[in-house]
Amino acid sequence: MKSNQYDFLIIGAGGTGLASAMYAARLGLKTLVLGASHSSELPIGGVITTTDVVENFPGFKRISGIELTKKIEEQTREYDLVKIKEERALKIEKKPNCFFVKTNKETYQTKAVLFATGSKWRKLEVPGSEEFERKGVYYCALCDGPLFRNKIVAVVGSGDSAVKEALVLSRYAKKVYMIVRGDKVHPEPINLERLKKEKKIEVILKTNILEMKGDNLLKKAILDKAYKGKKELKLDGVFISIGHLPLSDLAKSIGIKLNEKGEIKINHETAETNVKGIFAAGDVTDTKFKQLIIGVADGCSAAYFAYEYITKGKVITC
Fold first, then answer.
1. 37 vs 84: CA distance, rounded Å
2. 137-240 belongs to which homologous superfamily?
3. Hey, what CATH topology would domain 5-121+244-312 get?
4. How far, in Å, CA of 93 to CA of 103, rounded?
5. Fewest Cβ atoms closer than 10 Å to its Cβ: which of 151, 175, 226, 297?
6. CA–CA distance, 249 with 27 (Å, rounded to integer)
7. For residue range 45-86, what is the model confidence (pLDDT) as tens digits?
8. What percent of the chain has pLDDT over 70?
């Protein structure tokens, strides 16, 4: 097999892609992992690298997102059959029994493809939001909520996910504001009842954050509407919960079916898409529960079914 020919090519080098590569190698597949999707600037490790503290991944009581994914990456690199390259997949062309994947540097030939491109948090596009990311601006209460014990935080968003974020934060913070641009929140009924019972949470309706300010850390948010006579709201942290954007444009370009959210539709038993030979796993798919541990498991499963597709179908290089 030539140097640019692979059995299995994985687009995306987050935990899902790296774990999948590890299992593919154990099954004897020559595997290539491309470390950046066509529309993501995240480093190897994916979106979890933006999390300061992870306390919900088995085997580690407390570890940073960067450290965790570094360990997964190091373990994956132990397999000689795996190559990890920081290249961006730009185009995929399907041929009989194989695919050609063009990156910003090279063109690779492969028998099967896995999309593990993940998603990115939908960001609040206001001044200071990017400046204070990981310095007061966060996207995962389950991951980073413990950093805010006895502090004042806010959640931006109105959906069920935003309410659940606020409920998680109420376990740690002494005060949680929900900043909602509309006239009401939209959680599931059970979470609405929980919200009503939680005295630490206060909902501020018909209000937007215009700017975030601070020094080395976030100190306050500027509102477009006065709250208790002031447009400045003192805060130690802001959690953005206004949705995710799946990184699925490249998948769409080759005819892979997406749902209304832009997520890749898969067979949840086999990780197959509607295009034969292409699989998908992790946050880019229509899997309902988005967590690193789920993505890792789905990536491993995808590797197994890709192996079955290649071997049982007797797929040969085109």
1. 13
2. FAD/NAD(P)-binding domain (3.50.50.60)
3. FAD/NAD(P)-binding domain (3.50.50)
4. 12
5. 226
6. 29
7. 777 776 667 778 899 998 888 899 999 999 999 999 999 999
8. 96
Same fold for the domain at 5-121+244-312 and the one at 137-240? yes
Alpha-carbon distance 280 to 264, whole Å? 7
Please give the model's pTM, rounded to 2 decimal places: 0.75
Structure tokens at 219: 């100190």
169: amino acid identity, one letter: L
Q: What is the distance between the alpha carbons of residues 315 and 28, in angstroms, rounded to a whole number? A: 14
Least Cα distance to 14 among 240, 282, 248, 265 occurs for 282
* 8 A C-beta contact, residue 108 and residue 5: yes
Amino acid present at 55: E
Give me 136's structure tokens.
């007061």
At residue 291, the 3 state secondary structure works out as coil
- DSSP 8-state secondary structure symbol assigned to residue 128: T
Torsional sign, CA 156, 161, 163, 169: negative
Q: Where are the domains of the chain?
A: 5-121+244-312, 137-240
